[in-house]
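[User] Once you have settled down, look closely at the record that follows, and write a paragraph about the fold.
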Amino acid sequence: MGGLKDELLKAIWHAFTALDLDHSGKVSKSQLKVLSHNLCTVLKVPHDPVALEEHFRDDDEGPVSNQGYMPYLNKFILEKVQDNFDKIEFNRMCWTLCVKKNLAKSLLLITEDDAFKVWVIFNFLSEDKYPLIIVPEEIEYLLKKLTEAMGGGWQQEQFENYKINFDDSKDGLSVWELIELIGNGQFSKGMDRQTVSMAINEVFNELILDVLKQGYMMKKGHRRKNWTERWFVLKPNIISYYVSEDLKDKKGDILLDENCCVESLPDKDGKKCLFLIKCFDKTFEISASDKKKKQEWIQAIHSTIHLLKLGSPPPHKEARQRRKELRKKVLAEQEELERQMKELQVANENKQQELETVRKKLEEAASRAAEEEKKRLQTQVDLQARFSTELEREKLIRQQMEEQVAQKSSELEQYLQRVRELEDMYLKLQEALEDERQARQDEETVRKLQARLLEEESSKRAELEKWHLEQQQAIRTTEAEKQELENQRAVKEQALQEAVEQLQRLELERKQALEQYEGVKKKLEMATNKTKSWKDRVAQHEGLIRLIEPGSKNPHLITNWGPAAFTQAELEEREKSWKGKKATE
């Protein structure tokens, strides 16, 4: 909350200073009441006009100083502020109060909106003391960021010349001097207004809006599963996506926390450069335009989640804090060096005073004891020699101290140069780490691909060996079956040959039997014709003679003429019939 309060006080200080028209350090109560009401409105703090009247109720109708306004501002406004207001709207309100009085638009090559963004950036980078200024180190940092955003090369020599011509009586620039420095194009020569404006907007997004990365990517829908191009904006704890880069039509947010993770996905469904963001309740599939963009987004999101796990602020805020701490350390060292110089100077002055006192005493002693001059002459010579020696020693000490001061100044300059070199080395190390991380990921991808290919080759080789064994087994089985079939074929051919021969014999026997049948048939026809004349006779003597007919399969009776034409049962029946006839006769 302390950081937010300091940030708000800087913008309010500009507004208060703008209302102080005669530079007396005081503002009328009516203006302060209007300012307080506007602050409560934009900061979404309940406005209490009664408390305002109570605070300013006295007999003095004159203006109120900044120190007199601060207690009310802290108690009734700043202590009630929550982080739920629009910071841009708040800054815009304070900017509106001070811009007309201080900004000369005709001399600038940038728009008023760009000047407003530079004003907000100034409040972010300025020192925490009033009146607000931005020190040369922060000016160099801001100009470097703008030059990088414009795609140009940083001219260190040009900035060193600017620092040489810098007013030694000032510790830094005011906000209006900074706007004039950027607006006059001194460090953006060769760049058009649109390029400068885009660079200011990019630095504003990074430092003020905490935009860590932004750009167009394709997003897969959760319901219709279609792919749509969106403008993504990455901040320290959220990823917002919009229809376009004007940020007017917001489509949704991806809330980030320490439990989220980002993973690379293989190409699928015709989409390339895919990666996945896993959150607590949802997952988001996103497709970048190329592999470089994909890796940049994955690394940026991974770094953001890592910062959330560590509870660290955004990188630019952490870097600003480190620069402030470094300046405090250097300032403390300078103050310590100045203190030592003052101590040496005081000691030297004391020694001079002591020498002067001794000299006066000697003169007084010489005037009072002229008669003893010869007697004390040797003593005076000794004293002068001793004090001369001490003076030479003091001069030597002074010279040594001056050399130490020069050496400390040189060491301080070397230290500052080393700090700049370390910052450059840090940037190069970051680039080298990024390249190494990319190389490791590529190596891991190739290694996984080789392992997968080796695994597939091993499985295919095992499958081929299995097929080879099965083929050899099938060949052996086929040869055995072939041999068995050959044997069966030979047996069947032999059996067929025997069956053909048997069939031929049967055909011959059938022909012979048919010839015999024809002969028997002719004989039967002849016998039939011969027996027709005997039918009547046989009808009268059925018991003695009967036509030859097919008999039963029962045993046949034998008569004098051969086998009987009737059975035993028929014979018994006829005997009974004869006996009955005889009994009746």
Notes: Residues 90 and 499 are 118 Å apart (CA to CA).
